[in-house]
Automatic annotation (TrEMBL):
Similarity comment text for this entry: Belongs to the small heat shock protein (HSP20) family.
Transmembrane segment boundaries: none
Name of the featured protein: Hsp20/alpha crystallin family protein
SUPFAM superfamilies registered for this protein in UniProt: HSP20-like chaperones (SSF49764)
Superkingdom: Bacteria
SHSP domain ranges (all copies): 36-148
């Protein structure tokens, strides 16, 4: 008879894997459901501050360029639009449906002066890229306020 060393944590590795899978499947991409504050679905965004500009990259796969609007008002950048559902196929039996459809909207505050006449946006391969050039002259226009 061989002696086997008992590892009290061996059973916990399976439990940890199950919990990780639960969170990965249900919380990877936050979804907004009807009745919440924001209708539609959320898309991931990267915002990068460089010396000359603020760069925004948003993943919006499956949307048409014509269905996306980008606005910049009072230092608030807003991306909104709609991703339309594909036509339903007759006799199709879906085993799993994970892609979200419908309207979407996200807003971000930009805390630096921006040259509004030089802003650019490009949508290619499901990625929306927005360039907000910084306005360096706005810093020079500031003045000190004397405290009385």
């Amino acid at each position: 008879m061989d002696l086997v060393k008992w590892d009290p944590f061996h059973e916990l590795t399976g439990l940890q894997s199950s919990i990780n899978r639960l969170f990965d499947e249900n919380f990877r991409y936050p979804r907004m459901y009807p009745g919440t504050l924001a209708h539609g679905w959320a898309f991931p965004v990267d915002i990068k501050d460089t010396p000359n500009a603020v760069l925004v990259k948003a993943e919006i796969p499956g949307a048409n360029k014509e269905d996306i609007q980008v606005t910049f008002n009072d230092n608030l950048l807003t991306i909104r639009g709609e991703r339309r559902k594909e036509e339903k196929e007759e006799g199709a039996n879906f085993l799993r449906t994970e892609r979200s459809y419908g309207s979407f909207s996200r807003s971000f505050t930009v805390d630096v002066p921006v040259k509004q006449d030089e802003m650019k946006a490009r949508y290619r391969d499901g990625i929306l890229e927005i360039v907000l050039p910084k306005d360096t002259d706005a810093k020079r226009m500031g003045r000190n306020i004397e405290i009385q």
